[in-house]
Amino acid sequence: MPELPEVAGLAAFLDAQLRGCVVTKLQITSFAVLKTADPPFTAVEGRTVSGVRRFGKFISIDTDGVSLVFHLARAGWVRFTDSPADSQLRMGKGLIAVRCTFSGPEGSRGLDLTEAGTKKSLAVYVVRDPQEVPGIATLGPDPFTEAFDADMLAEILAGSSQQVKGLLRSQSVIAGIGNAYSDEILHAARISPFAIAKSLDRETVQVLYDAIHSVLGEALAEAAGKPPKDLKDVKRSHLRVHARTGQPCPVCGDTVREVSFADTALQYCPTCQTKGKILADRRTSKFLK
Predict the structure, then answer these.
(1) If residue 62 lies in a helix (H) or strand (E), which one and from where to where?
(2) pLDDT tier at 283 (50, 70, 90 boundaries)?
(3) Which string of b and e fits 9-22 if b means at least 16 CB within 10 Å?
(4) Short-list 137, 140, 160, CA closest to 148
(5) For 176, left (φ over 0), alpha (ψ -120 to 50), or beta?
(6) Pick the residue with more confidence: 95 or 118?
(7) Which residues pair with 77 in a beta bridge?
(8) Phi, psi (5° rounding) for residue 279?
(9) Stretch 249-273: mean pLDDT, rounded?
(10) Cα separation of 45 and 273, whole Å?
(11) Phi, psi (5° rounding) for residue 130?
(12) Cα 104 vs. chain centroid, distance in angstroms?
């Protein structure tokens, strides 16, 4: 799933490519993807793109009066081309869920939203204001806003009995962090993913705050300027524990371990994060003896 750094990279790339272009056609091949009805999705056609913004993991292509907003979810992605096809897409066929074409001073542009797998959760909205999208309206603070400081993080943590891994992933608490970067942040901060948020002392909160900015900041720098086709590989190449089960921790050399859930998993280093102990599964949320 793309998270804050990749979504920021996509938004910056699309802004550079589409700002000033006119939306010529929007095709939706699966109406399950489209989450709004008013205004109709065709309302974006004929309008000029004024910019592309990121809200957490959402991307908003803004035009004069209407925004096309999308969330890529777990298996969604962006294909971009400067030679878009003119063909009419067939409903419910293939990986392409949405196709949007643009015309501009430098010629045509094409944007496809694709989704692999059988569990479809890609979401598209056509709205007059991005804040009309429920997922955007309820977002927590962005980690790179001025208001998000160590004191705010301490207040968030102090008010929660949730495990810190889950809290970091909650979009209504902090926007933009998902499964992969929460693993990476907790590894950098040397905190167990099962630690209870309110149990962290002020010194540990500061370490966590610094890790959020260092991990996401490095990933943002790596994603900057990259086209969509390169962003997944860029992300994978810099992960230290996430999706590296059974491999040596690059910090201490211990074996990276995994805790599996119904439809996802987390990875961590026992030496770096849990004083050498192996974590149990979610049913007990305790250490194995």
Answers:
(1) strand 58-63
(2) very low
(3) bbbbbbbebbeebe
(4) 140
(5) left
(6) 95
(7) 114
(8) -80, 145
(9) 95
(10) 51
(11) -55, -25
(12) 29
Q: Can you tell me the distance from the alpha carbon of 289 to that of 285, in angstroms, rounded to the nearest whole number? A: 12
pLDDT at 89: 84
* Dihedral, CA of residue 235, residue 236, residue 238 and residue 239, to nearest 10: 110
Each residue of 204-251: pLDDT tens digit?
999 999 999 999 999 999 999 999 999 999 999 999 999 999 999 999
Report d(CA 177, CA 110) in Å as an integer. Answer: 28
Over the stretch 17-72, which tens digit does the pLDDT of each residue have?
999 999 999 999 988 899 999 999 999 999 999 999 999 999 999 999 999 999 99
Instruction: Work out the pLDDT band at 284, boundaries 50, 70, 90.
Output: very low
Reduced to 3 states (helix: H, G, I; strand: E, B; else coil), residue 103 is: strand
Q: Closest by alpha carbon to 62, among 20, 7, 33, 104? A: 20
**Calpha distance 144→81 (Å, rounded):** 30
Q: Rounded to the nearest 10 degrees, what angle do helices 202-223 and 179-189 cross at?
A: 130
Cα atoms found within 13 Å of the Cα of residue 241, Cβ hemisphere only: 33
Angle at Cα 179 formed by Cα 240 and Cα 51, nearest 5°? 105
Inter-residue contact 54 to 62 (CB < 8 Å): no
Q: Rounded CA gap, 93 and 127, in Å?
A: 26
Amino acid at 68: L
Instruction: Give the H or E element holding residue 69.
Output: strand 67-71
Enumerate residues 6+ apart whose C-beta is below 8 A from 257: 245, 267, 268, 269, 270, 278, 279
C-alpha–C-alpha distance, residues 63 and 84, integer Å? 20
Total Cβ atoms within 10 A of residue 83: 8
Those residues whose C-beta lies under 8 Å from the C-beta of residue 134, and which sit 6 or more positions away, are: none
